[in-house]
Design goal:
With 510 residues, the protein is of the alpha+beta class. 46% of the residues lie in helices and 12% in strands. It has 16 helices and 14 strands. The strands form 4 sheets. A 7-stranded mixed sheet has the order 2-3-8-9-7-6-5, with helices on both faces. A hairpin with a 2-residue loop joins strand 8 and strand 9.
Length: 510
């Protein structure tokens, strides 16, 4: 389609050395939020430029605005005219697979604008992700090419409710079938994970200087003993989500008390703490129920945190992706006709780092293992697809080898079998954490949808219990499934005991 719209151009005064030095990290985005346009992390930022996902012309305009600035930056000049009319021909197509964001591909028919095809990402999950920190992280990752991310992945610029990224050509999203059929693909993802953890310099704004004196030279690598003092975001995020969840459930239930039963079922399984039809619940009882729900949620988070600290006190912490699933992995289409051979850093790319943050490194592996079960299409993971313990051990072994290559530790003298057993035990624990994390996320997203009126209250129960829309994504259904799996995993640990599990790993019986 052809669009005629004014393009906002970067201001020349923001290209001064002084301004560019000030505009870095999440603080740079916050500082620039009151400007018409700025340079943050050496990319253009237009905080007042808003894209309407239902209006293609605004999607194209955002791409043109950013690419006009990128072209000027590369040429060493920035056009400050504000009266340019854009007559660029462009094509917009929806990119499927995004659960949190709306994604569009924009192909621009203009030889002067490079790249000619870009990804327009419109942010979702409002309030759940700090977009200033997340975008600053992504900029740093893209600047670390050759170590942590694909060489052709780049962040081009940001607008008020999203950003523009490069499209890596000849790539498609992976599927859980790819995981099942192509072990080499899974191993390459694990290798890239190790390079992210130990080859990426942790941004200075993520390091709490009050709790750590140094962190080595590369991510969680050579300074690993120091990096253990870094604070994972995991527990703070879960606590924040718990608080938000209780507030929103209370708001939703005040509109319809029947929702109390549904939310309790989603959160705590089919053992309800209220009557089936919500009989006897009034405003006073609802307040008491909300306090009880908050207590249960916080107790679970505290239990798993205490369990990790007690049994894995030396679990390494580094910058992690935290959401490696099939949709966030791109593979070269050439692999489809090559029997899956040739998986490497050029043919496989991890993308979508919006949940990226400091975390336990083995959480990343554990979460990736859980994501083999899918469910990102209909909200119903198939836990029969969970990788075998033999494959999980192989993945951990591959991870250790790649980590040592990154750190040049190939000659270190360690009992490799013991290290594999130790990390595998951590991976098993963090699989449970992954279920709790994404289960809470799913319920919170579902409640938010209800409050925003995205689907009717009367349909919530049918969707939750797979009686309708079973082929469509459903946040509540997905959250309920992951939380059910968390409880099963927790019960297994309580029955066997962590020491028994550790013994089984060390003895090779698991």
């Amino acid at each position: 389609m052809r669009v005629n719209s004014s393009i906002v151009i970067c201001r020349r005064r923001l290209m001064t050395t002084k301004s560019r030095q000030l505009m870095h990290g999440p603080g740079g985005f916050r500082q620039a939020s009151g400007e018409g346009s700025s340079m943050v992390e050496n990319r253009p930022y237009f905080p007042e430029l808003i894209v309407d996902l239902h209006d293609e012309s605004t999607v194209i305009n955002a791409a043109n605005v950013i690419l006009s600035c990128v072209g000027g930056i590369k040429a060493g000049t920035i056009d400050t005219r504000s009266d340019i009319r854009n007559t660029t021909t462009a094509k917009v197509s929806i990119v499927s697979g995004g659960l949190t964001n709306a994604l569009f591909r924009v192909d621009i028919n203009d030889e002067e604008k490079q790249p000619s095809s870009v990804l327009v990402r419109i942010f979702g999950a409002e309030g759940m992700i700090d977009r200033d920190t997340e975008t600053a992280n992504f900029a740093r990752l893209c600047d670390s090419k050759g170590s942590a991310v694909h060489s052709q992945l780049d962040y081009l610029g940001r607008f008020g409710n999203g950003r523009i990224e490069t499209l890596i050509p000849n790539m498609r999203a992976a599927t859980i079938c790819d995981f099942k059929e192509n072990e080499e693909l899974v191993l390459e993802v694990i290798r890239q994970m190790a390079r992210l953890h130990y080859g990426f310099n942790i941004p200075e704004y993520l390091i709490d200087r009050d709790s750590i004196s140094s962190c080595g030279g590369d991510g969680g690598g050579e300074g690993e003993s120091d990096c253990r003092q870094l604070q994972p975001v995991l527990w703070d995020v879960l606590a924040s989500w718990n608080n938000e969840l209780v507030t929103k459930i209370s708001q939703a239930c005040s509109r319809d008390l029947r929702l109390v039963v549904i939310f309790c079922s989603a959160l705590f399984g089919d053992t309800h703490i209220v009557a089936e039809d919500g009989d006897g619940i009034n405003e006073s009882a609802l307040t008491e129920m909300m306090a009880q729900i908050a207590q249960i949620l916080n107790r679970e988070t505290q239990w798993i945190q205490d369990h990790v600290v007690e049994h894995h006190p030396d679990a390494p912490i580094a910058f992690c992706h935290n959401d490696i699933n099939a949709a966030n992995i791109l593979i070269n289409v050439g692999l489809d006709s090559d029997d899956g051979n040739g998986c490497d850093r050029d043919s496989v790319a991890m993308i979508d780092y919006e949940y990226g943050a400091l975390n336990y490194t083995q959480y990343d592996i554990a979460n990736f293992i859980c994501e083999h079960c899918g469910g990102n299409d209909n909200g119903i993971p198939d836990y029969n697809l969970m990788p075998t313990l033999e494959l999980q051990r192989k993945l951990v072994h591959e991870y250790i080898q790649e980590r040592d290559r990154v750190l040049n530790n190939s000659k270190r003298h360690v009992d490799e079998q013991k290290e594999v057993a130790k990390l595998l035990s951590q991976v098993q624990t963090f699989q449970m954490v992954s279920h709790l994390y994404w289960g809470t996320w799913g319920i919170l997203q579902g409640v938010t949808e209800l409050l925003e009126g995205r689907y009717e209250i009367d349909k919530v129960k049918s969707r939750l219990y797979n009686k309708m829309d079973v082929d469509s994504w459903d946040n509540l259904r997905y959250g309920k499934s992951r939380l059910n799996q968390y409880r099963k995993h927790k019960q297994s640990i309580l029955e066997t005991g962590q020491k028994q599990m550790s013994y089984l790993y060390h003895s090779g019986r698991l």
